[in-house]
Design a protein that fits this description.
Blueprint (H helix, E strand, L loop, with lengths): L6 E3 L6 H11 L3 E3 L6 H13 L1 H21 L4 H14 L10
Parallel strand pairs: 1-2
Helix pairs in contact: 2-3
Length: 101
Amino acid sequence: MCGGVPVISWPFFADQQTNCRYQCTVWGVGMEIDGSVRRDAIAGLITEVMEGEKGKAMKKKAREWREKAVMATDAGGSSRRNLDELIRDVLAPSFHGNPAS
């Protein structure tokens, strides 16, 4: 998603099912390969993502998510601030006068 492109998911184990669900239904940036992995089905998904109406909508959403990711990781962004706070408070507390407990 940080690349700003839709994804085709084939969840197999661990957190892949959750990631796929979010990509396909919550964030609107992906399509799932179903249980019948056949060449024509995969080709259809690729065609839809690359050229279809669903694909166009997913591309738009993926670009929006990419913009949000860039903003969050830029200086002053929420993720950048959280990382800086983690480093300051947990990983390097002695550098800021906070004694390690």
